[in-house]
Amino acid sequence: MSFQAYLDTIEDKTGLTPRELVTLAQARGYGDPATKAGTITDWLKGDYGLGRGHGMALVHVIKNGPKIDDKHVGSGGTHSDASDELWLDGQATNPNKA
């Protein structure tokens, strides 16, 4: 599953775009790099029913922004992403989605 696919699934499960969840996390003070991943994943599990894998995908975005390592970009593998910039504004408006 690509990183973007994790975010798309999170949107399907929660009804919120990744950007909306990042905003909610920041409002809770979770945007600070010192915030432990477990604190964020516990919140996401408790409020939205997200498991660890999906929660950790959001932790990355909350703490580091939408930029990802280009290791898998265009690789064609299971974890291949179309871009090194994740789309946070919802699947319907993603210009990288076929």
Explain the overall architecture.
With 98 residues, the protein is mainly alpha-helical. The protein has helices at residues 3-14, 18-27, 37-48, 52-64. Helix 1 crosses helix 4 (52-64) and helix 3 (37-48) packs across helix 4. The longest helix is centred in the middle third of the chain and has 13 residues, at 52-64.
Outline of the structure:
The chain has helices at 3-14, 18-27, 37-48, 52-64. With 98 residues, it is mainly α.
Features:
single chain; globular; mainly alpha; 98 residues
The helix-strand sequence is HHHH
Query: What is the average of the pLDDT values?
Result: 91
Task: Give the overall form.
Answer: globular
Distance between the termini: 16 Å
DSSP helix fraction: 40-55%
Low-confidence stretches: none
Largest sheet: none
Question: Mind telling me the C-alpha Rg?
Answer: 13 Å
| Strand segment count | 0
Share of β-strand residues: under 5%
What does the secondary structure layout of this molecule look like, with pairings?
Elements: H1 3-14, H2 18-27, H3 37-48, H4 52-64
Helix pairs in contact: 1-4, 3-4
